[in-house]
Amino acid sequence: MTAEELKAFCKERNLTYKELAEKIGYGEGAIKTAVSTNNISQPMQHAINMFSKISQLENELKKANEAKEILKTWLNS
Between helices 3-12 and 42-75, what is the axis angle to 10°? Predict the structure, then answer.
């Protein structure tokens, strides 16, 4: 992951570096340093990838629960 990719990741998700840092267990300074030096460590990259995957799975679960509620409502009508 490059600094530009990290910037794009944050922009796509409307996250500040501070918010991302909190979500992946890093300090804001670590994120800013990684971006400014274009040196995103493997552990940081892994944490970002896992955060992304968790977010994706949470969205899928939300959609499944919404579908479940619609089906329950429909079946009880």
Answer: 20
Mean pLDDT of 35-42: 96
Domains in the chain, CATH or no CATH each: 3-75 (1.10.260)
Using the predicted structure, report yes or no on whether residue 21 has a pLDDT greater than 90: yes
pTM of the model: 0.83
- Specify the long-range contacts of residues 46-54, CB closer than 8 Å, at least 24 apart: 48/1, 48/6, 48/9, 48/20, 48/24, 50/24, 51/20, 51/23, 51/24, 52/9
Beta-carbon neighbour count of residue 26 at 10 Å? 19
